[in-house]
Amino acid sequence: MLKLKYFTFNPFMENTYVLFDETKEAIIFDPGCYEKNEREKLHDFILKEGLIVKYLINTHCHIDHVLGNAFVKRQYNVPLLIHQNEVMVLKSVSAYASNYGFPGYEETEADQFIDESDEIKFGNTTLKIKFVPGHAPGHLVFYHEGSKLCIAGDTLFQGSIGRTDLPGGDHQTLLSAIKSEMFTLPNDMVIYPGHGPETTVEYEKENNPFVGKRAKF
User: Fold this and answer.
1) pLDDT tens digit sequence for 129-169
2) Which residues make beta-bridge pairs with 11?
3) Known PANTHER family for this protein (predicted)?
């Protein structure tokens, strides 16, 4: 049985996710832990549950989602997986981290590239991948059909969508990708976003002001 735990870290209120199953193998998505106490919260949970971390995955590589990359790689000796289109996005973080109040940011590099043709396997679990660019050029989302859960990063939020005014963003690309990729998931799929509370595909199809039936923008 697949289980999910999330933490909200850093001033951007970013959601960091840990997925694990009955084998105790786990994946950490988008570690936003920058401060010592944030890293301790994540590590204490891993220890308490007796988890074996297999992978570190970034849905995309904006600063708020990668602040804990170096810590996780070092602490658990795991590879970092990203889409190849996110290489420059990740590399650029070092240039502006101090301006955002993170002078202690440690640069990391990807160990493996993944895309929508791949699957992520850990324990008894297989995650499928969708390519949903627009917020970031190599943004990926990860879903598990049996558990009806989707790690969506900054694509689709409860009542909103990811911002598209950052380098590499494109509004129409994101709208199209949400409709063609996210909205083809089952209606009862639970969307776990990079910020804010979870939602469902069905709710956003009906109510999202950007991409739903009542779209205003």
Assistant:
1) 999 999 999 999 999 999 999 999 999 999 999 999 998 99
2) none
3) HYDROXYACYLGLUTATHIONE HYDROLASE GLOC
Fold of 3-207: Metallo-beta-lactamase; Chain A (3.60.15)
First to last CA, the chain: 39
> At a CB cut-off of 8 Å and minimum separation 6, what does 170 contact?
133, 134, 164
pTM: 0.97
The residue type of 9 is: F
Question: Taking the mean position of all CA atoms in its chain, how far away is CA 24?
Answer: 20
Distance CA 46, CA 24 (A): 10
Q: What is the DSSP letter of 189?
A: P
Cβ atoms of 18 and 2 closer than 8 Å: no
pLDDT in tens, 88-134: 999 999 999 999 999 999 999 999 999 999 999 999 999 999 999 99
Look up residue 169 and give its amino acid: G
Question: Hey, what's the torsion of the CAs at 147, 151, 152, 153, to 10 degrees?
Answer: 170
Distance CA 74, CA 190 (A): 31
Q: Please list, in sequence order, all residues whose beta carbon lies within 8 angstroms of the beta carbon of residue 151, skipping any fewer than 6 positions away.
A: 17, 19, 29, 59, 141, 142, 143, 192
Tokens representing 180 are 């063609």
| Residue boundaries of the structural domains of the chain | 3-207
CA distances for 176 relative to 103, 135, 136, 162, 212, angstroms: 36, 12, 14, 13, 12
Sole residue written with tokens 């002078």: 103
- Contact between 48 and 26 (Cβ < 8 Å): no
